[in-house]
Sequence to fold (232 residues):
Amino acid sequence: MKAIILAAGRGTRLYPITLELPKGLLKIGNETILDRMVRQFKETGIKDILIVVGFQKEILMNHFGSSVRYISYKDFLTTNNLHTLWSIRNELNGDVIVSFADLIVENSIIFDLIKSNTNVTMAIDTSKVLEGTMRVSVNENKIENITSTSIQEADGNFIGIAKFNSKGCKLLLSEMCSLINGNYKDYYTIAIDNLARKGSEINYLDVKGHIWREIDTKDEYDEACNIYDSFN
Fold:
């Protein structure tokens, strides 16, 4: 099992506090966002942790030292994480967890993802539909669409972490390959959306009732700081 953390972006919606600091190094309680995530992965037995760095990469690399691996992505100013993930496509093999770098989750979410045995398992919260987080439409245990989902058809939100097995990695790579000559501002979930709409089985883990936060704005950061002791 491998964990890939996509941490190349600038976190512009959190300016000015991220003008010179990667968003993943913001503190929640006594840990940074990424310190917590790396610790959680290691506690679940994942030893191979790769952080894709870009903005202020030296700060991240100095912070974690040799405790994780790094790959640098140079086009972080002009692209989104579809292209970031494609740049490390050789790492997408076997069982892989892919996570955004601005995510706080309960330990149980990671454990449940690891135990999932489907080709693609996206962590979804069906408790409510949020404006600022990626909307998802589901039917029974499958995702019907993601990223391009309207508010009217949405059943919940993708929280920013997913697991792919070997077959799931091949599906993702095949679809990303068809998109990579454009779509510079898209998330990699546009490939998942295409797969689901074409009939591929995209499963999900419902994290309804579990605590998580994706931190994109100052208000979300303040809220996470206020409730950090509720996370395990």
The first strand starts at residue 2 and ends at 7. The mean pLDDT is 92. Helices lie at 33-43, 57-64, 81-87, 107-115, 166-177, 189-197, 218-227. The chain is about 30% helix and 25% strand.
